[in-house]
Request: fold
Amino acid sequence: MRFESTADETALDRLHELLAAFWESQPSVMPDDRIRLETVLSEVVGNVVAHGTRPDGTKPHVSVALAASDDEVWADVSDDGDAPPAHEHGLPDALEESGRGLWIAHEVADRLDHSRSDGGDNLWHVVIQRR
Amino acid sequence: MEITRTAVADTAAVLAPRGRLDLVTASRLRAEIAATVAEGRPRVVVDLEGVTFVDSSGLGALIAGLKVARDAGGELRIANAGKQAVTVLSITRLDRVLRQYPSVDEALAGF
Reply:
């Protein structure tokens, strides 16, 4: 199951619509596993919306594909925007207002891999082990 | 994102956002908290009953609100956090900073 969108404010609405449809098609996925995938994807796609605008001001395209097996749910996200912010290594101080997004994604996902394709696309692979 | 504000006593207010608290909507909550505090109500309870999802931007808005409230001699507390909100609050250890209550009444009682 997948969607493609311009990475603007509507992209997160589309993401949650896709997730809702996906869970309908996969009723055996437990609530906690759903929460984890939604949390990670909101941060990853949110980063594309927040930081992916190209130097010329145009917004990138983002695509999200979801799949499930008995053991895992996983997602592949790709966008053709700017490279993502450097991975935040530690959790910022409690009273910091930003800088937690990718940290949360890495903490919640069982696997979160980022790479760049030859064509310059950002590729994210998210794996949630079903518990 | 719709946010309902209810004034309580002289210096408190309950804010009830509805929907997702994320990158797109967080700035609205931040602004609403700031306006509430500026109008003389620095004791703020954010009722998360109607909030379906909180991401790092939503957490940022709550932290910003906490600082604004404290700077004005008040406090910000959370009530009725759902499973997903509790998950992100505990993973980021912000549950130590943003006090959570099981109901709005209990959150207000502490003020």
In short: Strands of chain A lie at 2-6, 61-68, 72-79, 111-116, 122-129. Chain A is about 35% helix and 25% strand. The first helix of chain A runs from residue 10 to 25. Chain A touches chain B through 26 residues (CB under 8 Å).
